[in-house]
Amino acid sequence: MGIIEKMRLDGKKIFVTGGARGIGKSVATAFAEAGADLAIVDVDIAEAEKTAAELAENNHVQAIAIKADVTKPEEVDAMVAKVVETYGRLDVAFCNAGICMNIPAEEMTFEQWKKVIDINLTGVFLTAQAAGKVMLKQGSGSIINTASMSAHIVNVPQPQCSYNASKAGVIQLTKSLAIEWAKRGVRVNCISPGYIGTELTLNSPSLKPLIEQWNAMAPMGRMGKPEELQSVCVYLAGDTSTFTTGSDFVVDGAFTCF
Ligand code: NAD
């Protein structure tokens, strides 16, 4: 079997949080194109249902939509139980749901701070923990978390200390889980994208006006597209990355190089 065939994900059962749109939807599309059956998990169930229907129709795979808020342990556990009930197993978890708030540190309320940490860091922990329990029993599985280049640098000019701190936490959480589960068949990695054109950036009233400044700072002079994160995630999900765990994949057009 050639390397491209080996990278296919035929029959793998995968859930994607924040899968209704943006990076989650794009990566879920790549998983479906590679042959996987999907569960699209999101708080926006209407959009998640549209995405699941589109993936199933275009790729002749199974795709279901599940409503779950990643900050709520009981919803996360029920979501993972539903995936296992539907598909009989869980091969890959893409823990990707996240938000950003741009608020100066001295003005940030406790609730605003907590909301970002709860979704971006605690949400990834709860989701990876629930997935990990199933995968450890199976003796196999791959978990991919979405961190950010904001784990490595402090973005300017926008003030986003809670986001940066949450994403740095995702990298260290990823490495910790990778070590705990390394001998038991469960791999844990993360991706650190640079600026990517999605709702989170293109349609955010606070971020949209900054795009020209970001592009002026970017070595490639542009933002990334969600599709430019697909192949690394397909690699991490599949059976050609069996020696890859505890790694963070920076995909940022060299933004963090200087
Ligand atoms: P997006 O806003 O387009 O999509 C995020 C999705 O997550 C939405 O569908 C939303 O409904 C869902 N979501 C939000 N809160 C949730 C919750 N509590 N439970 C379940 N689902 C929830 O954003 P995106 O740009 O696609 O970002 C996806 C991930 O990538 C995030 O973790 C983000 O921090 C990260 N990221 C984005 C960029 C970028 O420039 N867009 C860069 C680096 C990292």
Explain this structure.
The protein has a seven-stranded parallel sheet, sandwiched between helices. The chain is built from nine helices and seven strands. The mean pLDDT is 98. It is globular. The protein is α/β, with parallel strands linked by helices and 258 residues long. The structure holds nicotinamide-adenine-dinucleotide. Nicotinamide-adenine-dinucleotide binds next to α2, α5 and α7.
How are the elements arranged and paired?
Layout: H1 3-6, E1 13-17, H2 22-33, E2 37-42, H3 45-59, E3 63-67, H4 73-87, E4 92-95, H5 110-138, E5 141-146, H6 161-181, E6 186-193, H7 199-202, H8 211-217, H9 230-237, E7 248-251
Parallel strand pairs: 1-2, 1-4, 2-3, 4-5, 5-6, 6-7
Helix pairs in contact: 2-3, 2-9, 4-5, 5-6
The structure holds nicotinamide-adenine-dinucleotide.
The site of nicotinamide-adenine-dinucleotide has 29 residues, from helix 2, helix 5 and helix 7.
Query: What's the Cα radius of gyration?
Result: 17 Å
Oligomer designation:
single chain
For the secondary structure, the number of strands is 7
If you average the pLDDT, what whole number results?
Answer: 98
Q: Give helix % range.
A: 40-55%
Annotation keywords:
45% helix, alpha/beta, binds nicotinamide-adenine-dinucleotide, globular, seven-stranded parallel beta sheet, 258 residues, 15% strand, 9 helices
Briefly characterize the structure.
This protein has about 260 residues and is of the alpha/beta class. The chain is built from nine helices and seven strands; from the N terminus they run αβαβαβαβαβαβαααβ. It has helices spanning about 5, 20-35, 45-60, 75-85, 110-140, 160-180, 200, 210-215, 230-235, and strands at about 15, 35-40, 65, 90-95, 140-145, 185-195, 250.
